[in-house]
């Protein structure tokens, strides 16, 4: 029998669910802790619930798990985890250790992606389906299980396969579980949601949840952005910047801008200067990501000297800038290579 997974229920719906099953309301809190703090895999392990309660739960729900199908380790320490979902679909997560001790897990929010960015490997799969809350959180649980307690994940970025703000409800409810003190108990500033620029959703999201935001800008003119990212026909660069200025005023966080540098396409000196102008008045951080090539896409990587030039220029304009070293490239775990 295929019972629904209890991990797909938003935390705030659990109390109503358990009372409808005849359990006491406070059991919801206990269940949250068992699922997301103690990470049990069966209701039987929820030992502070009565035998009867555990049985009723097991008759109505399962505790869904993702099946880890493959772990690949890159030379730089990055690990890619491939999972098989209940319906046979595959997703990937990437674990990225940093020299400063942070351990970041990049998780997927959809199988494939509908946004159609022309430089992205996930886009080539098309959109297959949204992930459920249990599948989003399951990536973290299974990666921690597989790597043992020695490597507790410190940061979560929703930057894997998919556009998080398309799968809005499951992403919001998952982030709530990450923040909940009874569950993952993560701090807000350790969670970052990256969007390709769905501005109306970003606005709503940023008012609902106080976690960090990253915007994949990737161009400085609408002409180029239209070609790279079809979403730009709905929300132009001006729309993005208007939102960012307003966000910058009300949020304590710096906004992250991701800029995939594609040789000869969006990496001219003019682009560099326009980028600085666009960001004026915004508390911003820029991640320059050299385009990661993949079979079937003939965009070029930027020149090393161009990258350095951009880095120096942005830094000289007091914009905090990182060159996102392409991690895990030998295992196709780098940005935009998940498929
Ligand atoms: N859909 C969201 C999050 C997932 S994509 C978004 O677009 O923001 C995560 C990041 O990878 C984005 O900043 C995207 O611009 C970048 N990316 C996609 N394909 C890439 C590639 N081939 N090389 C380098 N970065 C890429
Ligand atoms: Fe989707 Fe992000 Fe890839 Fe664009 S870059 S296709 S939004 S995953």
Beta-strand residue fraction = 15-25%
Low-confidence runs of at least 5 consecutive residues? none
Side-by-side strand order of the widest sheet? 1-2-3-4-7-8-9-10-11-12
Count of DSSP-assigned helices: 11
Strand element count: 12
What is the H/E string? Answer: HHHEEEEEHEHEHEHEHHEHEHE
- Would you tell me the overall average pLDDT? 95
The 3D shape can be described as elongated
Radius of gyration: 21 Å
**Largest sheet properties:** 10 strands, mixed
**Head-to-tail CA distance between termini:** 31 Å
**What are the distinct ligands in this entry?**
S-adenosyl-L-homocysteine, iron/sulfur cluster
Decide which structural class fits the backbone: alpha/beta
Into which percent range does the helicity of residues fall? 25-40%
Topology:
Layout: H1 11-20, H2 27-36, H3 51-60, E1 67-73, E2 79-84, E3 90-97, E4 103-106, E5 110-112, H4 121-125, E6 127-130, H5 133-147, E7 155-158, H6 168-179, E8 191-195, H7 199-208, E9 212-216, H8 222-228, H9 237-250, E10 255-261, H10 269-278, E11 284-290, H11 304-316, E12 320-323
Parallel strand pairs: 4-7, 7-8, 8-9, 9-10, 10-11, 11-12
Antiparallel strand pairs: 1-2, 2-3, 3-4, 5-6
Helix pairs in contact: 1-2, 5-6
The structure holds S-adenosyl-L-homocysteine and iron/sulfur cluster.
S-adenosyl-L-homocysteine binds at residues 119-120, 159, 163, 194-196, 216, 218, 258, 260, 289, 291-292, 335-336.
